Amino acid sequence: MLERLNDYFLTQPRRLVALGDALVRAGGFLLLAGLVGRVAATGVSTVKGLAGGAQVEVALSEVLPDYLSAWMPESALGYVVAILMLIAGLISARTGRVYERYMGN
């Protein structure tokens, strides 16, 4: 199975570059969505705290009840996964470009 993947990406390195670009975009989008979600949850938590009660942690599902927010990172583990996707994308895009240069494509 791994040999088939190697053949698939190494015969046309542009595929590896495209995979890297997709991973970079997905990881960056997840990081951005997570940060926006964190800002929204903190803002709602602060407003609730200003209303007279103690400042409580608000879940993202309470802030955005109409949207599917399960894919947005809320914890450190989610952010680590998004950063790893971003790093893997950068490495695969760079590797694909190096292979393109050596192969003359």
The backbone outline, from C-alpha atoms, is rod-shaped
| Uncertain stretches | none
Mean pLDDT: 86
What is the count of DSSP helices, taking H or I runs of 4+ residues?
4
Quickly count the domains.
1
Largest sheet geometry: none
Query: Share of helix among residues?
Result: over 70%
Give helix and strand order, one letter per element, not per position: HHHH
The first-to-last residue Cα distance is 25 Å
Q: Quick one: how many beta strands?
A: 0
* Class of secondary structure makeup: mainly alpha
Q: What share of the residues does DSSP label as strand, in percent?
A: under 5%
Task: Give the radius of gyration.
Answer: 20 Å
Structural write-up:
- There is one protein chain.
- The chain is mainly α.
- The chain has one domain.
- The chain is built from 4 helices and no strands.
- The protein has helices spanning 2-11, 13-50, 60-63, 76-103.
- The longest helix is centred in the N-terminal third of the chain and has 38 residues, at 13-50.
- It is rod-shaped.
Q: In short, what is this structure?
A:
By secondary structure, the chain is mainly α.
